[in-house]
Structure formats: structure tokens, C-alpha cells
Amino acid sequence: MSSYISIIIPAYNEADKIKDTLESITDINEIDEIVVVDDGSSDNTTEIASSVKNDKIKVFKLDKNRGKGYALNYGLKIAMENADIIGFLDGDLGSSASEVKKLIMPILNNEADVIIAKFPPAKKKGGLGFVKRLAKESVFEMTGVELDSTLSGQRIFKKEVLEKFEEIPYGYGVEVGMTIDILKYGYTIKEVLVNMTHSETGRDLKGFIHRGKQYYHIKKVLKAKNKEWR
């Protein structure tokens, strides 16, 4: 029996990229459903997403911006109805979203319970590596598993893994927190190198503020996980 695969795309002000993102994955035969959750965008993300005419695509708009975690949980309520395999993709991947097929095939071949996209090195200089290092070292410290892409939001899950979570955690620490839980529950994770690209934060004030929030959220999540898994 073939698996029903649903892809959830949380999108906030992605009018420039959402069309390319959607058009690059609609022709992937293995994907049965694409759930776009517009997280209260102030631009015309919803209108552009809805203009991509394909029976796989379902577009929903939240009444206000509530954050990526909320948008993912909203999408999950829809995806869990039919899907055996569920994926998360960002709305700003553009045409490189087609690389998701590299994540789908290993899970169909039962190579792991969760597949995470490993991106090529960033094209422009970002932060100083504090956030990535904190995420990687903390996951290893808590689980004994060394992963390079603990911050990657491009993931494919077997349904049973997501059923262990009452809801997806909120905030910038979501990926790290989920990775720790998944490994602690005894599920397997495999990283797959993809040629995906998305909006990168640079070494400007906005970039440093973003990474500061990430660092704070991850520290907060790690504190909670240390208590939970003692």
C-alpha cells in the first residue's frame, strides 16, 4: 500500500517566494497534499499561494501572526487526518524546494523515522556559529547522537513520531527541542544533504537580533528538556 504524504508549509510574508516554492513540489508524484498556512501575513502571500492551481494545494490564513509553531500545529490538524508521512517545509525555499524528494525517498525506504535536510554552507557570512554550536553540542550531550542540522526546519516524519507530541513547541527552539525528544523516545534520525537555499540572515543588526532570539529560545528549551529527561 502506498503512503499518503502531506507537506505543511508555514508562510509569513512570503509573497516573493511562495509561488516558486509551491510550483516546484506540485509535480512530485509521492506528495499527495500540500497544506499552506499563512501565518497572518501583511502581504498577499495567501492570494499568490491560492493562484497556484493544483488539487494538492490547500491554503489557510490565520487571523493574525501567531508564530511558526502555531502555524505548524494548525497544519498538522489537517495533515494528520489522512497522512502516513508528514513533512515541514519553509515557504522561502523557492525552486529549491524540489529537493524535498531527497528527503522523501529515504523515509519511504524505511531508512529512518525522521529525515532532516542538511543544507550546503551559507553563501554569505551569517553569525559567528554560537547558535549552531549550542544546538549541536546540546543535542549530543543529551542524546549521544551527533547531528549537524539540528536547526533545520526541513523535515519529513513518519506519522507515529508526530503522534508522540501533543503539539509542536513554539518559539525558535522548536527544532532543537523536537530533535531531543525524538531521539529520547528511541526513534532514528537521518540527515540528507540537499541543495536547498532560503533567506539567510547576515551580519547586520537584524541578523544579530534574530540570532540572539534563537539563542535565548534554545537555552530556554534546553533547560526544560533537562528537567523533563532527568
From TrEMBL:
Keyword field: Transferase
Keyword Transferase: yes
Any Pfam family: Glycos_transf_2
Signal peptide: none
Ranges of residues in domain Glycosyltransferase 2-like: 6-133
Superkingdom of origin: Bacteria
UniProt GO MF annotations: transferase activity
Protein name: Glycosyl transferase, 2
